[in-house]
Amino acid sequence: MLLNIHHGFNFRDMGGYPGAGMHTIKKHKLIRSGKLDELSDRDVHFLSDYGVRFDVDFRSADEKKAAPDRVPHGASYYSFPVFPTDETQVSKTREEEFKQFAADPRGGYKNMLQTYADMVLQDDAQKAYRQFFDLLLSNPDDGQALLFHCSAGKDRTGMGAVYLMSALGVNMATIKQDYIAANDYIQEPLRQILSSVQKQGANANLEQSITDLWTVKEDYLDSALTTIDHNYGSMRNYLHEALNLSDEQVTDLQRIYLV
């Protein structure tokens, strides 16, 4: 469910998705979103009133410094950087974008395929998602929501949602549906970015790469899932072996977040 945020995008309550054992994800417990730096005072109060008590930031140090969160009142802030730098390239400067992607229309697409494989295998990414699960396990009280985000709320946040929903027993078709839905909510910032680079003389190659960087595709998620299957055999094995989730912790997650 899209939240009524006026100065931010891709803020979604994950409640209502069907999980394990005919249960569904609780509402007002899990929120995935884009960055929080542009929130208005009204938006900050809205999230506080909505019950947000945990703000998990998957962005790199440079991203956080450039655009620090406006943390909802009553919430605690947690920094769990998935990458030391922004491999998704969403936060790159225009000069960097022009140089890297103007020569190759598939540059952004290829970058994202590699980024998703890296999110599965890199030590920093596995550490960040394990910290994410530790915090999830510390939130047993109903009415306390945990919000997790990156810059656009689609890649690092998207994989966090994939891991979490998998642990909660959500089927892969629904997980993919939630993942792809990000495209519905990033069109305005994408339009603004494309308009800006067009005015600066961007060629068609650069426009295509920026579009590929700023949207999600099943190919990107499939890159991650294929990497998981190749290296760990299954998502279940990945959660247990790479993210160190025990059977008991999976049961606890389902008890906390399903109704």
Query: What's the CATH architecture?
Result: Alpha-Beta Complex
Report the strand count.
5
Broad structural category: alpha/beta
**Which consecutive residue ranges, at least 5 long each, have pLDDT under 50?**
none
Basic shape: globular
The whole-number mean of residue pLDDT values reads 93
Question: How many helix segments?
Answer: 12
The strand line-up of the biggest sheet is 1-2-5-3-4
Q: What is the string of SSEs from the N terminus onward? A: EEHEHEHHHEHHHHHHH
Main sheet attributes: strand count, strand direction, barrel closure: 5 strands, mixed
Total number of domains: 1
CATH class reads: Alpha Beta
N/C terminus separation: 17 Å
What's the CATH topology name?
A: Protein-Tyrosine Phosphatase, Chain A
Can you characterise this structure?
With 259 residues, this protein is an alpha/beta fold. It has one domain: Protein tyrosine phosphatase superfamily (Protein-Tyrosine Phosphatase, Chain A), CATH 3.90.190.10. It has 12 helices and 5 strands. β3 (52-57), α2 and β4 form a beta-alpha-beta unit. The two termini are 17 Å apart.
